[in-house]
Design brief:
With about 120 residues, the chain is mostly beta strands. Helices cover about 0% and strands about 55% of the residues. It is built from no helices and 11 strands. A hairpin with a 4-residue loop joins strand 7 and strand 8. The radius of gyration is 13 Å and the shape is globular.
Length: about 120
């Protein structure tokens, strides 16, 4: 079965950096685009970044452009999100997601808190 497991979240000061990782299993990882979403308290889940199956094309939310970088390692079934220049408004639970045979699969999420 499809499984996605995120890690790397934590507490960081404004201006700091974190690197999130998502390890995938249960499907042919290299054949699927992957996405990172986030959900802040009281807000809807929103797309942060996405990457095509080969990693050749990426897309970012305007709010994170120039600060976040999505990447993938198809040999390790892993998609990463490097987050730099973090702001308090980046505080949220971050999820990775794959659309597999028309169904959306989500990880359990990892909490990112940006606070001084």
């Amino acid at each position: 079965q499809v499984q996605l497991v995120e890690s790397g979240g934590g507490l960081v000061q404004p201006g700091g950096s974190l690197r999130l990782s998502c390890v995938a299993s249960g499907f042919t990882f290299s054949s699927y685009a992957m996405s990172w979403y986030r959900q802040a308290p009281g807000k809807e889940r929103e797309l942060v970044a996405e990457i095509t199956s080969a990693g050749s094309t990426t897309n970012y939310a305007d709010s994170v452009k120039g600060r976040f970088t999505i990447s993938r390692d198809n040999a390790k079934n892993t998609v990463n999100l490097q987050m730099n220049s973090l702001k308090p408004e980046d505080t949220a639970v971050y999820y990775c997601k794959v659309r597999h045979f028309g169904r959306h699969y989500w990880g359990q999420g990892t909490q990112v808190t940006v606070s001084s």
